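Notebook entry, structure prediction.
Reason for the run: the old model in the group folder had no record of what sequence produced it. Starting over properly, with the input documented here first.
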Amino acid sequence: MNAWLYMHAPQLLLDTQLALQTSVQQQQPQILLEGSRVGARQVVQYNQAAAAAGIHKHMTEVTATTLVAELQLRPYQAAQEQRILEQLAQLWYQDIAHIALYPPQGLLFEVASVLRLYGGFHGLLQQLQQRLQEWPIAYVVASGDTPMRARLLAQAGHSVLSNDARTVQQAVAQLPISRSGLEPIHITRLQQLGITTIGALQQRHRSALGKRFGRAMTQYLAQLQGELPTPQQYYQPPAQFSQQLDLLAEVASWQQLLFPLRRLLQQLEAFLQVRQLSVRSILLQVKHRDGQHTEQPIRFAHPVWQLKDMLGLTQLQLERQQLSQPALELGLRAQRLEPRQLQHGDLIQASSEVAAPTQPLGELVSRLQARLGQQAVQRSHSQRDWRPQQAQQWQLWQANTLPAMVMPQLPRPLWLLEPEQPIDPQQWQLQWGPERLASGWWDDAPCQRDYYVALDQQQRQGWIFHSQQGWFVHGWFT
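New structure, fully documented this time:
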């Protein structure tokens, strides 16, 4: 069974721009203009406020500005709209593997292999709509037994979703010839011949149409009927993630950039999910009016891939940062990617059988680093040295550090005092010992001590030692 789905978003670029604006800005009439000569440019996209004021497609710039004095004008950018189309393809690639781009505003999906998985067209459409919760764009989706039928229905605004080929064929036959996708000159000639619908065109003999309109017409009809396969170039996600977002207006602070940043992080989540990857570091890039750039690295203490985790940790780190000058464009690049896998060998991990116990700790460290800075969060690392002062060192937290040195299992307290405190041995009750230490003769810190585990008068368990200088408590057991 052949099954195709086509998504057409006629206002894709403008809808994406409106989504980044405040509710007050969205209520202002806005249009996108296409053309090279100022004044003679034509309207290609417009919002509801502009439509309510009488603006329509193909209206000239002069007429539109005369009709609406407070009209906001922006140039239409086809390259930027195609980038948005690619971002949508990457978002939906999590659900459908065969996606073809039809710039500037369409996506074609080959869905025969996934219809049963989602319970038909309606279930699949619900899944696609769920992916677009952060993308308030207007679009039409239609199905078809051939790619061209699905595309013509969607572009005409007819959301037909059916497994019945006859239902789809009848819907396409009723479309006006102006919605056929043929060349304008051919449409005009067909209308002069009294052919006003696609169905009427299909009833004519192909040989006669071919003689009058050429080979392109016969190929068109063959593709429409599914007799001539339409070659598709399916979308392939990029190997690296790097995306930019035009902010339309200057943004003065990192906090104001969090809303558009959420859009970029959602795209990153889709990128990571498709490849089963996590990220340890991202780079935010801000472009300013003078062409200068500001870069802000964001690092995570544990691998993350979900939007909520990346956004929350990024927000904490940006609270301590300030923009030197307002931003006009925001970019995001993923820098440190790694496969999702079980993490083993962590010194603090209680069990090496599962990775779940380390996850809350990693999240905590990431939040502490984001709030306090990386230098403020450190971890202890064991060294191969018998002397307590040298056996434990503090270093910056890195989840991928080398495993600690394996030392004999001897009683050691987690809480060491620095410096050691003198004590009266008469007030202590010995429990274990002695452990004699005679080390460090090769450097400037020799150590000759006898260590004991003992209880003081408050029944606190301490680690005490005797040396030539006397008795001292070196640490406490908790």
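Summary: The two ends are 69 Å apart (CA to CA).
The old model has been moved to the deprecated folder.
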